[in-house]
Design goal:
single chain; mainly beta; Jelly Rolls; about 45% strand; KduI; isomerase; zinc; 4-deoxy-L-threo-5-hexosulose-uronate ketol-isomerase activity; metal-binding
């Protein structure tokens, strides 16, 4: 079992607008989050968000000293909170001696101060895939499972505009208290391909997107950048995007798909969005 760590520094839009496609991918796309038997972690300088994927295979995968060293504390959640959603087979998370059994699309919140964290798959042939986000925390809130049936369901969009979708709020003030993390899952209906349209910004918060449930040969064209200077990235299933506060974050797929969105920053108001006039997109 291994842990791999990367660091992504914050990029100003004046820099991104001069980047090649390969450079955009290097700074904003996370390609290999789910590798069997490993914990893949990316520490970002956008609101100090940590994005990680844990894929236990045939044993226990523990959060070790590598991540504690990364954030400069004795253990990862000494001054942080953590949220995750399982996008693989059934699995479990063992946190300070408590075992949390997670089915596909179940979520988990671990509060500040949780010390020992480990991951296991119920069946190594169908491993769990835990998509993890962690951000700094100012106090401790209780850890708990968020079943997919506990999440707040919202019907959004319209088939006529190819963006009919269901949005599920997992880490949200109406579901449970957190310090700053917001996290949820959106699934597009068959025949719809556009997510988060019309586009918006929220300069007070960064966002990360994990795309999944895409067929092998399918992809999403993810739009990023300032509304007047958009750029794009091709994203495959199981890959994640880092979205700076100055960037729009929307896209269209070659088929229906799902994505997990997460945010950290100044507030927890899901509706705190600066809408973009579609006529201004360039």
């Amino acid at each position: 079992m291994t842990t791999t760590v990367q660091t992504r520094h914050a990029i100003h839009y004046s820099q991104s607008e001069r980047m090649t496609g390969a450079e955009l991918r290097e700074h904003f796309l996370i390609e290999d989050l789910f590798v069997g038997g490993s914990l893949q972690a990316v520490y970002t300088h956008y609101d100090r968000m940590l994005v990680a994927g844990a894929t236990p295979a045939g044993g226990t995968l523990a959060v070790g000293e590598e991540l504690a060293k990364l954030v400069g504390t004795d253990h990862l959640l000494e001054r942080r909170e953590l949220g995750l959603i399982n996008i693989g087979g059934a699995g479990r998370v063992i946190a300070d001696g408590t075992t949390y059994e997670l089915q596909p699309t179940d979520g988990l919140y671990l509060g500040q101060g949780t010390k020992d964290i480990a991951f296991e798959s119920a069946d190594a042939s169908t491993p769990a895939k835990f998509y993890i986000n962690s951000a700094p925390a100012h106090t401790k809130f209780p850890s708990r499972i968020i079943r997919n049936t506990d999440a707040i369901e919202n019907d959004l969009g319209d088939g006529a505009t190819s963006n009919k979708r269901k949005l599920y709020q997992y880490l949200h003030p109406k579901v449970l208290p957190t310090c700053q993390l917001l996290m949820g899952l959106t699934r597009l209906e068959t025949g719809s391909v556009w997510n988060t349209m019309p586009a918006h910004l929220h300069d007070r918060r960064m966002e990360a997107y994990l795309y999944f449930e895409l067929p092998e040969n399918a992809f999403v064209v993810h739009l990023m950048g300032r509304p007047e200077a958009t750029e794009h990235l091709i994203v495959r299933s199981g890959q994640a995007i880092l979205s700076p506060p100055w960037s729009i974050h929307c896209g269209a797929g070659t088929s229906a798909y799902a994505f997990i969105w997460s945010m950290a920053g100044d507030n927890q108001s899901f509706t705190d969005m600066d809408m973009v006039d579609m006529k201004s997109l360039k």
